[in-house]
Amino acid sequence: MTRDRATLPDESNVSTGRSKPPAAHAFVDKLNTFAPLEAADEERLRHACLQVRSYRKAQDLIREGDQPGPVFVILEGWACRYKILPNGNRQIIAFMMPGDFCDMHVGVLDEMDHNIETLTAARIATIQRPEMEALVEASPALIRVFWWTQLVEAAMLRATIVSLGRRNSLERVSHLLCELCFRLRNVDENGFDRYVMPFSQIVLADAVGLTPVHVNRVLRKLRQEGALELGGSSMTICNLSVLARIAGFDDNYLHRRLKS
Amino acid sequence: MTRDRATLPDESNVSTGRSKPPAAHAFVDKLNTFAPLEAADEERLRHACLQVRSYRKAQDLIREGDQPGPVFVILEGWACRYKILPNGNRQIIAFMMPGDFCDMHVGVLDEMDHNIETLTAARIATIQRPEMEALVEASPALIRVFWWTQLVEAAMLRATIVSLGRRNSLERVSHLLCELCFRLRNVDENGFDRYVMPFSQIVLADAVGLTPVHVNRVLRKLRQEGALELGGSSMTICNLSVLARIAGFDDNYLHRRLKS
DNA sequence: CGGGTGGTTGAATGAAATCAACTATGGTGG
DNA sequence: CCACCATAGTTGATTTCATTCAACCACCCG
Which of A151, A152, A214 is most worth mutating to test chain B (most B CB atoms within 10 A of its CB)? Predict the structure, then answer.
């Protein structure tokens, strides 16, 4: 539960979900799934994401107290938002995967109130503030799309609150894994039967507010139910419907359709 | 923990925090605290909030599955967002008090993923979508202000996640009460020494993810510490610093200053 | 080969839930 | 006006779930 800040060598270069061609512009896929973008807007977006940086596993993107920086767009790999409590405990607040925009409008704030770090090796595009403003000025469709992104993010936070507040450990873990699987569908078109989660049980524990020991026991039970497989240092969901049943999962909050 | 949907007669017409003059436009106070608005914008805002409705206690404003409606601006009274789980448990996701805007941009979504209901009798202004768009078109300052509102709302959700995930019952209750007190400061200028919380222990329990019984015990302890007083059907925070110490409260996430 | 990290398991402990009374209060209807 | 009922708060006893503590394993990497 306590954690060290050292940036570890990236021993595992786990790729997301299932490997797909170059996957370089997952975010366009994602945005297209709910509101088709015109070619021009799509091009604008791609163009804005040309400045790419590679990160190792467990590297900070931004830390609490920092001035808000550019908008990040995850191209490959996973990251997470988290906070550390005075006693050293940490709580992971949200996961970010390919196709996710983050901190769309934090520019107006004085400083960050949480940290973001990579969970795997990652390639992440940065869009500077002025460029961002140019984007939204150029296209009302993009404004809508960005709003949608923000709103879904807020909805996921609310769902997390419900989980942490009122679900037991088994439901909690199941619900989180379900959400991650559903989100992978937005950007990963092949094979909806198996989803690999590129993080440790410790990370999972920090996300669901349990101890790693207990998460381990929960996972054992889920494995016995046939919901997932635990291979070495990663877990693979192989039966999403079992998971969904246990969690009582309803994907409405992911808002995969816009108002028609 | 299970709840009934009946709209009770509003026996208690508790007013917020401390009574203040007509309090009719708390939201302007609030927005002004962090980013002074020009007179013209202030007037635009006031004008947009002329359509006001009164609600009784425990009335729904909007329910899960509904089409997103207008933007709500709370003028008097409190409300909350919540979700009900299949087993009947409910989790309160956020509290809303005078000065709060809600659901700024939900217009783009297909349907609501949670409910909102009043916790006390309330007066609430509605701003229709077109009017909202006119507002942001008229003034860039208002856009900024609305973004700020959204960002702070998200930050509060994140803080809630941290609380539910990694704080024990005593810290959790204390942290929530702290947040509510600090938020009251934005809109309630007189007397920062006592804050009355206009909701039952049951409501508090649904917000912090505990049972009413246990919340009761926690409150007893807080009372013994001199942090609050339990009078009849409401509690009054009378020593915020004790509460803040117990919770390890840091108000940075409320972002009461904008980037200068 | 040794050390570090992550995973696994068992046993003891602890925090919060559950169950069950009982009180206080306010509202309602006779 | 009082009897009754519903809701909220309070307290104690018991149970359940998750934590803590303590090993131990497996693996990768230097």
Answer: A151
